[in-house]
Design a protein that fits this description.
The chain is an alpha/beta fold. The protein is built from ten helices and ten strands. The strands form three sheets. It has a six-stranded parallel beta sheet with strand order 1-6-5-4-2-3, with helices on both faces. Strands 7-10 form a two-stranded parallel sheet. Pfam families: Lipase_GDSL. Keywords: Glycoprotein, Hydrolase, Signal. GO terms for molecular function: hydrolase activity, acting on ester bonds. This is GDSL esterase/lipase.
């Protein structure tokens, strides 16, 4: 079965209902919801910092956690809001060795991860291999009464969330064994309007003729639309091939573009300007003068900015979108 979810302020409600339906599909009355997430900085809850031993300092984390957490955001990510709504623990990063709780699932997402190997060695294919290792290790430890104690039924009924490129998603679902290892509920996000990230026009714009009516780089947004069309086609192929699988395609492009286009309606200001950055209007973004660097400041706490650092969305925008 394939389904689609797209924009508007009721998206969070619709998505939470959808995930509750996902989690209620098991026949066991007292089954808990288990969520496995794969992706990049949009949903990384600390994987990159733990995996490479790096430090992401203030002002990250100031809005909700009031401390640094490894999230590239001033507060919560969309995956955090979903966990809250489901009344489960925030997902711990797979790469975090201390204090992790994997009883409700695992977050394999790592900031900077891409569909092809790059400076960050955690492609989606690698993340899926990590999942397979986690599942095998869970089996071993479960027999000893330790580990996450997620049951075989828990893995089978879990929701598998993907937020990355279509090529690696194809590998993950068709040949890298999540389906073969029992996964049946797949939740796919398409890519957002890349041309609306403040970083992009700040670095790439040559003249205003390259901008659309909202002020975003049209060529990048068109490329994102083409990518998303291919991803939707892939989701439909998976649904046709695997009749017992449920595939949900979430149109993040429409959701985020609506937020930027109608920012005043949703109570936001400066939709194409980073809250935390350097250089001031119109984008407040300068290469090698990014959030967390010396002399880089952030907008006042409570400001209604859509972009946190020119690349990722602020907590308020994520909450509004989800």
């Amino acid at each position: 079965m394939a389904a689609g979810v797209s924009g508007g302020p009721l998206f969070l409600f619709a998505l939470v209902v959808l995930i509750h339906v996902f989690c209620s599909l098991p026949t066991v009355v007292h089954s808990k919801c288990v969520l496995f997430n794969f992706g990049d900085s949009n949903s990384d809850t600390g994987g990159l910092m733990a995996g490479l031993g790096l430090y992401l300092g203030p002002p990250a984390g100031r809005q909700f956690f009031h401390k640094i957490t490894g999230r590239f955001c001033d507060g919560q990510l969309y995956i955090d809001f979903i966990c809250e709504s489901l009344k489960i623990n925030f997902l711990s990063p797979y790469l975090e060795s201390s204090g992790s709780n994997f009883s409700n699932g695992v977050n394999f997402a790592v900031a900077g991860a891409a569909t092809e190997p790059n400076a960050i060695p955690f492609t989606l294919s690698t993340q899926v291999l990590q999942f397979l290792h986690f599942k095998n290790r869970t089996r071993e430890l479960r027999a000893q009464g330790s580990g996450s104690l997620i049951s075989e039924k828990g893995f089978h009924n879990a929701v598998y969330s993907f937020d990355m490129g279509q090529n690696d998603i194809s590998i993950a679902l068709k040949s890298n064994s999540i389906y073969k290892n029992g996964g049946r509920k797949f939740w796919m996000y398409n890519t957002g309007p890349l041309g609306c990230l403040p970083q992009m026009p700040a670095l790439l714009k040559k003249n205003d003729s390259e901008l659309d009516a909202v002020g975003c780089l049209a060529t990048l947004n068109n490329a994102a639309k083409e990518f998303n069309a291919g991803l939707l086609g892939l989701c439909n192929q998976i649904s046709s091939k695997y009749k017992d699988a449920t595939v949900v395609y979430t149109d993040m492009f429409a959701i985020k573009y609506d937020l930027i286009t109608n920012h005043a309606k949703y109570g936001f200001v400066n939709p194409l300007m980073a809250c935390c950055g350097y250089g001031g209007p119109p984008y407040n973004y300068r290469f090698r003068m990014t959030c967390g660097e010396p002399n880089v400041t952030a907008c006042p706490v409570g400001s209604r900015y859509i972009s946190w650092d020119g690349v990722r969305y602020a907590e308020a925008a994520k909450h509004n979108s989800f």
